[in-house]
Amino acid sequence: MNKKMFLALVITMFTILLVSCDLFETSDPFKAIFDEVTIIYQENDNEGAIRYDLDLPNYSDLEADAVFVWSSSHPNVISNDGLVTRPERSTWVVLTLSVRFDGQLKTKQYPVYVLSINDDVINETTYEVTFNFNNGSSSVVVEVIENGLVTRPADPVKPDYNFQYWLLGQDIFDFNTPIDGDITLDAYYELESETGRKLTFYDEFNGTTLDTNKWE
Q1: Burial class of 187 by CB neighbour count within 10 A (0 to 12, 13 to 18, 19+)
Q2: Concatenated DSSP letters of 143-188
Q3: Strands 67-72 and 91-101, how do they pair?
Q4: Residue 166 lies in domain
Q5: Which of 13, 25, 53, 64 registers the highest number of CB atoms within 10 A of its CB?
Q6: Strand partners, 142
Q7: What is the pLDDT of residues 103-121, one digit of tens each?
């Protein structure tokens, strides 16, 4: 086989692999449902600056049988229906969407930042604080008045990892630090410790037969 034929074969196999991976990913109905979900904000609101009620989708155009249930970490600030009551201090709220479909239940979290009743910025210098949650959700950008403080969000969740702290570059960020410029904060996680796990089954054998009391 000459080099050109070999190269063509490699490219063909690589293309088939990419297509197969894409088909595998899109075959997950929950991924398609969550990708479809869009929270609708009013006026100039966004996930990092909420003043008005939210429109939370409660159905899927892709999967009509999917059942949506929303819940709020702070129902006194954002109700499960998306009604907003602005607090005295800007507050992080985690909205959780639970989707039940085809006998399965999966959830996705949407962290949002509700501005306080006194936090309508008019003719003041503001800076952007970007939170990279690194848990599959998009980053959230929060506007903070110059020399103001940004509220620490609830600890983010990442499967098989424990959240440790927020990093500004290589340094742990102190949420008592006044904001005097645009910054990006990254969530830092560590792999869960295996301590506490308990061995539930163990068998050692050598030969051509198995203990039928243990194996089927």
Answers
A1: buried
A2: EEETT--PPPPPPP--TTEEEEEEEETTEEPPTTSPP-S-EEEEEE
A3: antiparallel
A4: 121-194
A5: 53
A6: 129
A7: 899 998 899 999 888 876 5
Q: Are 127 and 179 in contact (CB under 8 A)?
A: yes
Report the residue count for the chain.
216
Is 180 contained in some domain?
yes
Structural domains counted in the chain: 1
> What confidence score (pLDDT) does residue 4 get?
58
Single-letter residue type at 20? S
User: Is 215 part of any domain?
Assistant: no
Q: Which pLDDT score, from 0 to 100, does residue 136 have? A: 45
**Which pLDDT value is given to residue 5?**
61
Q: What is the mean pLDDT of the chain?
A: 83
Note the pLDDT of residue 175.
94
Residue at 135: amino acid letter? N
Half-sphere exposure of 146 (CA within 13 A, CB side): 5
pLDDT tens by residue, 40-58: 999 889 888 899 999 999 9
**Any domain includes 143:** yes
Q: What CATH number should be reported for the domain holding residue 181? A: 2.60.40.4270
Name the CA dihedral angle for 112, 117, 122, 125, rounded to a multiple of 10 degrees: -50
Place of tokens 């061995």: 199
Q: Residue 32: enclosing H or E segment and its boundaries?
A: helix 29-36
- For residue 129, the cross-strand partners are 142, 183
pTM above 0.85, yes or no: no
Q: Are 99 and 71 in contact (CB under 8 A)?
A: no
